[in-house]
Amino acid sequence: MAETLLDKVWRAHTVRTLPSGQTQLFIGLHLVHEVTSPQAFQMLREAGLRVRHPERTFATVDHIVPTASQQRPFRDAVAEEMTVHLIENCKDFGIPLFDLPSGRQGIVHVIGPELGLTQPGMTIACGDSHTSTHGAVGALAFGIGTSQVRDVLATQCLAMARPKLRQICVEGKLGRGVYAKDVILTIIQRLGVMGGVGYAYEYAGSVIEAMTMEERLTLCNMSIEGGARVGYVNPDATTFDYLRGRPFAPQGAAFDRAVAWWKGMATDLDARFDDVVRLDADAIQPVVTWGINPGQSVGVTERIPAPERAHDAERATWREALAFMDFEPGQPIAGTRIDVAFIGSCTNGRLSDLRAAAEVARGRKVAKGVRALVVPGSQAVAKAAEAEGLHEIFQAAGFEWRNAGCSMCLGMNEDKLQGREVSASSSNRNFIGRQGSPTGRTLLMSPAMVAAAAVTGAVTDVRELLR
Ligand code: SF4
């Protein structure tokens, strides 16, 4: 019988069916960071347990690391303490750690694929919502909470309910200035932030097939913002080319054997889905959020919608969003003044993102009064960007060029919005308070759109600058 990747990977990793009806699922790769792991390690110690598979567990520091001066000890005592705990825990439990001196540090969802740890057909877990990112290579990747981090550390297994599967087909060709970020924001706008609850998303169609691996990583990253804990793309030649030669990918003949197995894990042609949604690429334009969740967005040429257009259940949230953001229904989103421009995060902190933003920034200047930051997603991304001279393009334009980390994606480090500042951000969440100020306002968009906002001082259709 024809099967989907979800069927195949789930079956291959099933240990047994639990009395609750959930599956005890073996986890092939566990990624750990400093924020959600300290209590989990402590619970292990209290129970007298070791890490079940340290060779399948890898750690990094990303959320709390400062991106300006990374001199230890960090100025922020909490950041320093968390870093020390992670270093000690990794040492005590025999877990490899990609810390600052390693040259391999970065945002956990950037370094996993980059190092070839993330592979097709795997089950992956990490104590972070955006673990769905890793589905881009054809894995089932779950964001988990701290008690589940403990469970995976102790048993290498998770108790999981099997989700239903929705295939999202995007057909056609994206226009110039329209990126993977615009595709996923459009999907979330159309299906809603709760639309994927209980589902895994399989992304397919000619647009997805034509995407690079980095674009697929952006797409899968925000699955969770549409309510789907898991999002994946079937492994294909793009996947195999991306993984070939990466440090933790199989090497030589073992790689060829792995490719044969990976190909077999892709969804069969005549497999069935619980739901299928189709999108036309021609209808997708650069997208900007106007509200306080990633589903509240419009195309850059559109106007902010009136709450009357929302479903009954969402109308109150739309009103709250308009009031918080200081927007009026009917107001064009283009022209909204910004104070801060942030390019980075596990959604859009990869080399291709920085290239797209640099294309816009080249030869231009950051607008007066705008604070603009470029934060590479990993040390490897920073090194590659510097080798191409991208940092010089950004610095010449007036952007700050920072060290790798989560930075202003969330307010857990020194990079924060101040007061009511409006931020054009390439990250994934525009929740109230997300960027560190309880009253700060976030507009999500692609990195190229952020660069366009930075140099004009306002939300701008990047297509006008690319002509
Ligand atoms: S960049 Fe943002 S979303 Fe991604 S792991 Fe860091 S804090 Fe989480």
Features:
467 residues, binds iron/sulfur cluster, globular, alpha/beta, 19 strands
Question: How would the blueprint of this fold be written?
Answer:
Blueprint: H1 5-13, E1 14-17, E2 23-26, E3 29-33, H2 38-47, E4 57-60, H3 77-93, E5 97-98, H4 108-114, E6 123-126, E7 140-143, H5 146-155, E8 157-160, E9 164-171, H6 180-191, E10 199-204, H7 206-210, H8 213-221, E11 230-233, H9 237-243, H10 253-265, E12 275-280, E13 287-289, E14 297-299, H11 315-325, E15 340-343, H12 345-348, H13 351-361, E16 371-374, H14 379-388, H15 390-397, E17 400-401, E18 422-425, E19 441-444, H16 447-456, H17 462-466
The structure holds iron/sulfur cluster.
Outline the structure in words.
With 467 residues, the chain is α/β, with parallel strands linked by helices. It has 17 helices and 19 strands. It has helices at 5-13, 38-47, 77-93, 108-114, 146-155, 180-191, 206-210, 213-221, 237-243, 253-265, 315-325, 345-348, 351-361, 379-388, 390-397, 447-456, 462-466; strands at 14-17, 23-26, 29-33, 57-60, 97-98, 123-126, 140-143, 157-160, 164-171, 199-204, 230-233, 275-280, 287-289, 297-299, 340-343, 371-374, 400-401, 422-425, 441-444. The strands form five sheets. A five-stranded parallel beta sheet has the order 5-4-3-6-7. A five-stranded parallel beta sheet has the order 17-16-15-18-19. β3, α2 and β4 form a beta-alpha-beta unit. α2 (38-47) packs across α5, α13 packs across α15 and α13 packs parallel to α16. It is globular. The protein binds iron/sulfur cluster. Iron/sulfur cluster binds next to α4 and α12.
